User: Fold this.
Amino acid sequence: MSVSKEFAQYVTTLRYADMPAEVVAFAKICILDWLGSALAGSSKPPVQMIAQVAAELGGAEQATLMTGGRSSVTHAALINGASSHIVELDDIHKASIIHAGTVVIPAALAIAEWKQKSGEELIEAVVAGYEVCYRIGEAVSPSHYYYWHNTATCGTFGAAVAASKLLGQNEEQIVHTLGSAGTQAAGLWEFIEDGAMSKQLHPGKAAMNGIVAALLAEKGFTGASKILEGDRGFVRAMSQEGNAEEMTRGLGSVYKILENSFKIHASCRHTHHAIDLMVAMIAQHGISWREVEKVRVQTYQVALTITDNPDPATVYAAKFSLQYCVALALVKGSAGLTDFSEEALHDPAIREVMRRVEVSVDPAIHARYPEKWEATVELELACGSTLKQHAEYPKGDPENPVTYEEIVQKFRSLTLDQPQEKIQHYLRIIENLEQVPDVTLFFAQMKGR
Assistant:
């Protein structure tokens, strides 16, 4: 049996009624966490540019846009996916290195709104999408991640599965959906060299392409039946050590959505361990940045591959600079959304501290990645003493979790510019999502935005 066929069997048999209460509650937290980032990102220039292109292309008013108004389900997935990724506060899965919320949820919401599906059906689709894309991401990582942005590539499969589930596809249709999704899976890391806007395009296109794949299968359009494990399929083409057969091990016996992590700092996840340590050391020892003569950060190689940038030129690039994020945390004591600004980018104190930051790979830490995203931070103080702390898991990992109340507070902090009644509406409807008969009610407060 092909891997796609096994995934198709899983998707068709997954039922809300069989889900533990813990899984349902967690899926709702994922949706709330996604929504906060999507609302916060909706006014950002790159997202507005994407929305302008979508408006020029036109489209039937099938689903709601975070930027306002309505358009086709594909344009809604594109815009809402991009919107949810830009403030760098979207969820993340360690082993697969995927921000699943940014691709699975926009695709699922668009289809659910269009087809007037229930909250229970939306939850089913989200759980299925997370499960499949995480498994694919795990199978091709870590080598895949060097060139390819896992959220864009593996995430396409998650979006496709979510759409398939909501469209009620049979096993054969889902196999074709996965085939068409896999042949569209793309997203290269080269954008990071320029701080380009491509990162926002990635989840938007992944969500959009997943829907396109599902809608094509609805019409009888065929896709490769072994797109994952085939000789010229996804795994062999895009990974050095990938094992497609491992993708379905234990499928249906666990819920991988429960492995999801949440972000509390507005930067690349590979900077969070060091930020956590810096904030903790400031709080514990009451030190000032002026007292620190040297900062040494040791972590795994991937963190440096993505975030070793001692001189970021833009606010967005600063979110992918380990040196900058550490300096920001030391000077400001936090690294939230409002901490990253043009003023902070050129702050003389932060720039001075950046010059004192050294980053390197610890072989022992590297050997435990991606199971653990670890870091050690050592501070040399002007008084001659040294402070050193180690973190195995960034705040927000399942092993170092945030509470539901912290997620709600994060949501509120990301939506301060929104009307209070709209925020209360979202909190109420997501808290009771399994009781919602029609997902169009989800966006009732978006009218007139």
Q: What stands out?
A: The radius of gyration is 21 Å. The chain has two domains: 3-264+404-446, 269-391.
